[in-house]
Amino acid sequence: MVDRFWSSAAGREIGWRSRGLRTRYLRIESEPEQKGGSGSRARSAKAQRDLLDQLRAVNQYPLMGPVAVDVAFWVSRPQSPGLHKLAKHLLDVLGAVSPETGAPRRHVLYKDDRQVKLLYVRLWRAADASVGPGHTTICARPLRDVAADLALVDTVADELMTTSLSDDSEYSWPLTPRPTFDLRPARSDANPAGWHEIDRWLATFEHARHQEELLVSAGGLLTRVLAGAPHWIAGVGAPSRPYAGTPAFTDIYTALDQTAANRREMLLSGPLSIPLPGLPRARGEGRQFKAAVRKDVDAMVDRFPILAPLRVPLKVVLLVVPPEQGKDLDNLALSVLPAVRDALNGPDITAYEVIELKRTAADPAAGLLRFALGSGSQDGSTWQRATDYVARCFDRA
User: What is the per-residue pLDDT across 100-111, written as a single tens digit (0 to 9) for each?
Assistant: First the structure.
């Protein structure tokens, strides 16, 4: 009877709401900075003391298992480090407590940053310095809670009698959008140069709108594929098999396993993502790595010419199957983001995500690295937007 309740709509909603109690919300009230520089250690120690005070105030402790971390940097300085450099420093601050803090706790948010299996980083720039000093917001969740929310996406949508391609779902792939304006060249004997400029502006606006719809849809498709098999995220437990020993269920579980394998194949194949070369391992390989990334990005733009030139804010999603010896997610961004930005001729990369996937016996020892593009105009990570979608479905129900 108890199991039946927790599998019901009411039980799923209670379970979903209770997971929010395990979420850590933190804030650093200072201008985001990268590692190093004069006074950096003292400022890091102060940030750790403030974070520990926030955790003690709500009786929360470091997370022991795999973690999903969402970070938003709000900068007020005209010139600030790249978001990948900011993230590298912050993830160190969230780990082992510095002796300079004098705090009894040994760790802030986690014991080791290799616990971070999902990472989202967003950069917000102030229009001017009058808004005040910058700050950093952090949301950390146990990975098992994120996986549970992803698994609910299809379930709650079906209970609302919607489909994966429903018009009111952000996870649909839109039809070719109709033009907002008549983009035929303007014809007028009066002020032809002015009419030509208006026509050029309208065409640019329409191009940007199509790009934004494509990127939003690509992000929605990524979420739906990931939601279909969240156990492929590194650190997530295997799906339960309550009747695995029953012969009648053997064929059913075999089919489910094949479907899940197909989902992983979709994540690591086009058009959802494109391959990147292996990360540089030796000194001097950075130039060859950037050249290889540019070649791969050029091939993607050839397949999707609507992306050139890019006129909208961009989010870069990195899908990683780590090498056998492992790899820190923040170090990946340090190598990949500058190369992708240069290959795309310098668009405004406002956010990036790193999703670590489980290794299989067929994966190469060096691992796999692929990247996808998403909308930089949307706020929130792939997994947070899935949680928000579940919340909307529960509210509508």
Answer: 888 899 999 999
Range list of β-strands (E), the chain:
24-28, 67-75, 116-125, 135-142, 274-275, 314-321, 349-356, 368-375
Q: CB within 8 A of 103, min separation 6: which ones?
A: 48, 49, 52, 97
Domain containing 23 — which CATH number?
A: 3.30.1330.70
- How many domains is the chain partitioned into structurally? 2
pLDDT tier, 1 (very low <50, low <70, confident <90, very high otherwise): very low
What's the pTM? 0.89
Strand partners, 22: none
Half-sphere exposure of 274 (CA within 13 A, CB side): 19
Quote the tokens at residue 247.
């012969």
Strand order in the sheet with 274-275: 24-28, 135-142, 67-75, 116-125, 349-356, 314-321, 368-375, 274-275
164 and 122 in a common domain = no
Query: What are the pLDDT digits (tens) for 276-326?
Result: 887 776 777 778 888 888 888 888 888 888 888 888 999 999 999 988 776
Domain that holds residue 101: 19-148
Q: Same domain, yes or no, for 203 and 250?
A: yes
Local confidence band at 129 (pLDDT 50, 70, 90 cut-offs): low
Q: What is the 3-state secondary structure (H, E, C) of 247-312?
A: HHHHHHHHHHHHHHHHHHHHHCCCCCCEECCCCCCCCCCHHHHHHHHHHHHHHHHHHCHHHCCCCC
| CA nearest neighbour of 115 among 3, 5, 24, 217 | 24
Omega before residue 142 within 30° of 0, cis? no
